[in-house]
Fold each of these.
Amino acid sequence: MGIYEEINANRWRSSCLVLIFFCLVIFLGLGLGAVYGNEYFGIILAIIVGVIYFLISYYRGSSFILAMSKAKEAAKPEYTHLINTVEGLAIAAGLPKLPKVYVIDDSALNAFATGRNPEHAAITVTTGLLKKMNRLELEGVLAHEMSHIKNHDIRVMMLASVLVGVTVLLSDFLLRSFLWGGKQGRR
């Protein structure tokens, strides 16, 4: 399968993931509405919460991921080689925009790519990876992460994590409603 088929497959997977998510949200809303005695209320509430959560996560999801991992944007002169390597690989991959580069102060050997599309992508590496790997090994790891950006894998991964998060949020709300009696309200 060529790169364009991979990109189309990932777009299809993203669409299917969103469709399945909205079906699950409606199902959870139906359950929530049953607890409170009005199914329409539950469905509408679940759809509103789901859409808001989805939009915030879609447009700000990578910022949340970078903040949770305590990633700091790489700056020259300290990370000149890292930034130059990412720029060279991005140009070679034909990306429309250079991804932002971040570093996490951690001894673990790790790297990841995040974002919603190649125009809004970021590559993050740990300081442990930078210390342990030579130039060629580091370039290989960064090229691997660049392939996730080029193939739109980052959108599928981000959507999956976001949609799991909203499902857990709604499920927890539904569970607490069952535990505390819904509209009857036990003390």
Amino acid sequence: AVNGGASAPNWASAASGAWTEEGNAINTSPATSLDVDVSDADVYQVLFNVADGGGTSSVVIRLNDVSTTTYRSMLGTMIDGGSMNAELQLQTKWLISNAGSDYGFSGVCYIYKNDSNFSASANAGASYTSQLNKYDGGDPYATSISSGTNDTITGAISKITFMCMKENTSANENIEGSIRVNSLSYSW
């Protein structure tokens, strides 16, 4: 920004902010979930490289252990250069899901808390966007972009959980691998 009122233009202070590491979770053998407790922030970045224990599940993410609502997810999947197919699905109690029977998932997810900086609905919920690759012997190049909203969160985001579960159910297929969570808050 340029400061006003000066005899010659000069740059004002820019918004400050830097990524802060919130934590890592690692499972070296299949377990129920990968969990990271987080401080309240504007944006979270989740880097993940995980595999399921059942071979027929989807990777999912959950915020604050909220489990009383069914969330909506928009799924767009691009496979081996094919056409983009978008579908609206209801995922029981979870935010992110990618259809198929793939064994491994890696990528990045960004979670934006709805607040004064991302004001879809002030202090009501969180939205996310993610991009991931899915791996198995028959479909090693599949890429999926997902986005959605959890509008039931009205306070601080305190916990981010990853699991593998059968799509459109609450059946846990176990998860192994790692997630790393970073956060960013803005000051103006």
